Structure formats: C-alpha cells, structure tokens
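Hi team,

Below is the intake form for ABC transporter permease from Paracoccus fontiphilus. Please confirm the fields before the structure is written into the shared record.

FORM ID: S-0412
PROTEIN: ABC transporter permease
ORGANISM: Paracoccus fontiphilus
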Amino acid sequence: MAKGGLDAQARQGYTLIAPPFLYALLILAAPLLTILTYSFLTDGYLEVVRDFTWANYVQVWTDPIVRTVMLRSLMVSALVTLVTVLLAFPVAYYVSFLVRPEKKSLWLFLITIPFWTSYLIRVFLWKVILGYNGVINSSLTGLGIIDEPLTFILYNVNSIVITLAHAYAPFAILPIFVALEKIDRSLLEAGRDLGESRAMTFWRVTLPLAMPGVLAAVLIVFIPTIGDYVTPELIGGGKIPMIANLIQVQMLALDNRPLGSALAVTAMAIVALVSIVFLLINRRFLKVRS
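The structure came back. Fields below:
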C-alpha cells in the first residue's frame, strides 16, 4: 500500500515537472542541437550543403585569426571577472557585516538600481562618459589637468573591461553577500578570542567560508561576458572583436552558418570546461564548509 502510494506520488511529481521540462527542452535544446548540426555541414554559396564534414572545426582550431579572437575573449572575460569580483567583495562585505540589519534591504535595493535601465542604454552611457568629448575628458580639460582629451580610455580593452565590470557588478555582489550572510558570527568571535587579528580572522575564516559565493560570482560574470557582443562593438568601436562578434560576421555578414556554428559550439565547449573546473573547486569548499 505504501509502495503504491509512493508510485502515485512519483507519477504526480513527473506530471508536475513534465510541462516545464518539455518547455525547457524545446526552448534550449532545440536551438543548441540545430547549431551543433549546422557545425558539421558544408558551406555553399548562399546555402548550406548537407554534407558531413570536420572542416569547420579544423578551421576553428587552426586559423590564427580565430585563435587570436578566442584568446582575447578569454583574456577580457577573465580580466572583467577579476575586476568585478575584487570590487564586489568589499561592497558585499560592508553590507553584510557593517550595515545594520534593518537597512540591508535598502542597500540591496540600491545595488539593483542598474537593472532599472536597459543594458544597451548603460553601454551607450559609458560611451558618452569615456568619449573624446565625454564627461571625463571634459572635466579634466575644464580643471586644467590635461591640455587635450585622452584617447586611451575609449575603443580599447580598458573601456570594455570598465563597462562590463559595471554592468555585471550586481551579479557578483549578490551571491557573495548571500555567502557572507550564512557565516556564523560566533566563528569570527572565536577566532578573535584565540588571539587572531581581524586580518588573520578574515583570511582564515571569513574568506574560505565565503568562497562558494565568490566562485558563484566568478561563473555568473565569466560565462555571459565571454559571449558579449554589444560592448566590444560599441565601446570597442569594432576594433577589438571578441568571439561573439566573429560569430555574427560569419552568420550574417558572410552567410557562413556552418563555420559560425562551429565557432559557437567551440566557445560553448570552452566555457563548459571552465565552468566544470570552478564547480569542482566550489564543491571542495562546500565540503570544507560542511
């Protein structure tokens, strides 16, 4: 009887999860399978020839231009992730440890204010701020600090990193804040009672316990930034293409959908490998924490 009841509950559970599962399968899996299939086909003139080939992947892994763009994408994403997490951790620490409990919700509300505007609008605003006649150059020129506008703050890697770090800062602050909130404050008091300084207590207790949140922030920032298309196009002026820009050129400008699909699949595979590494590291910290 009990077994029959469990089977009935299992069937009810499957019935409940079936619609969202099928929806996710249709929305997510179908496009991915389509791109994967295209990556093994042959490009013809304004059409896709349905002949199986490895040539697209051979070109992806041997073409020096593709290799350069891919390495640049990884470098920029890693740099954005590093800058974002380093800037996000002090903010999350301040809100978690120094802000009074009744005001934490207000701070979290303020942190999410950038989400009120479109990502595209924020990118354009940074272009205005960093431009040749933008806010920074106009202010420095008006104060007499510089004689002519700075040219190295726009249309380069620095401007891309600044824009992306600002755009994804809330995504890094929130998971770190959640991890810090879960830390038992008595552990920190015990460390100080044993004669540890605040710095050593932070290094030996707070930081290791907060690492799951830090690693989550790393993944949340790294994964979307490596495939960002808008920021390199607008802030980089098209002079510093990343892998998403190269995929767009192959898919639309050159109408080479098989090669564009191979680029997309390769980028997804690299991101998946990096994500697996960080997830394994995160599991290690979770075991230590438990």
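SUMMARY LINE: The chain has one domain: 64-289.

Thanks, M.
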